[in-house]
Design brief:
Length: about 100
């Protein structure tokens, strides 16, 4: 993340709770598994949740480097950045529609 000027040293992952979702307009997930788990546990977010790759018309997962699938954090960071940059018009349109 250093190459993007983002300091994540103080970041600590945390369990997703309803409090995180209350004010969310859009929820982006990296994987279909995350999508399904969130939707099953919090059905009220149906219509607010999508795979991040859906922004660019792709339904494939972004690999989770914490699951040791051979992807490095740097490669995943680059992949997310590219998807967000390509999908920015769609993301803006989604935000304007909520």
């Amino acid at each position: 993340m250093d190459k993007y000027g983002i300091d994540v040293r103080g970041h600590v992952s945390q369990r997703l709770t309803n409090d995180h979702l209350v004010d969310a307009d859009i929820i982006l997930t990296m994987t279909r598994r995350q999508f399904d788990l969130i939707l099953r546990r919090y059905p009220q977010v149906n219509g607010q949740i999508l795979l991040i790759r859906e922004l660019v018309g792709d339904m494939n997962d972004i690999s989770d480097p914490t699951q040791n699938r051979g992807e490095s954090y740097g490669a995943v960071t680059d992949e997310i950045k590219n998807v967000v940059m390509q999908g920015m018009p769609q993301l803006v349109a989604l935000m304007e529609s909520v």
